[in-house]
Specification:
Number of domains: 1
Helix content: 40-55%
Strand order of the largest sheet: 1-3-2
Number of helices: 3
InterPro entries: Beta-lactam-related, Beta-lactam/transpept-like
Keywords: Signal
Protein name: Beta-lactamase-related domain-containing protein
Order of helices and strands: HEHEEH
Pfam families: Beta-lactamase
Shape: globular
Number of strands: 3
Length: about 90
């Protein structure tokens, strides 16, 4: 029984490594955008067919703080749903 659990765990790790290898790092592109628009930090994630295809982070967590922004950092999206919904509705109308 323990052997089966270990085999399942190893199989899942192999799948996770394969999936992570397919994810494109767009941090260098985000750095150019961040500097151009004078932002302290910028993070992005792109999905295709329910899977992550690209991700990246650039800059700092806070203005004046040298701690770098990472792709694993949590970002508050509070109060963004109104304009996101309006944008999606506008695109559907067009």
């Amino acid at each position: 029984m323990i052997f089966i659990i270990i085999c399942i765990f190893l199989f899942q790790q192999l799948q996770n490594d394969r999936v992570l290898a397919d994810i494109v790092d767009v941090s260098a592109d985000l750095e150019l955008i961040r500097v151009y628009y004078n932002m302290p930090g910028l993070s992005a994630l792109a999905f295709k067919n329910g899977s992550i295809v690209a991700q990246g982070a650039s800059g700092y967590r806070r203005l004046g703080n040298p701690t770098p922004l990472l792709v694993t950092d949590r970002i508050n999206l509070g109060s963004c749903s109104k304009w996101m919904t309006a944008t999606l509705a506008g695109r559907l109308v067009d």
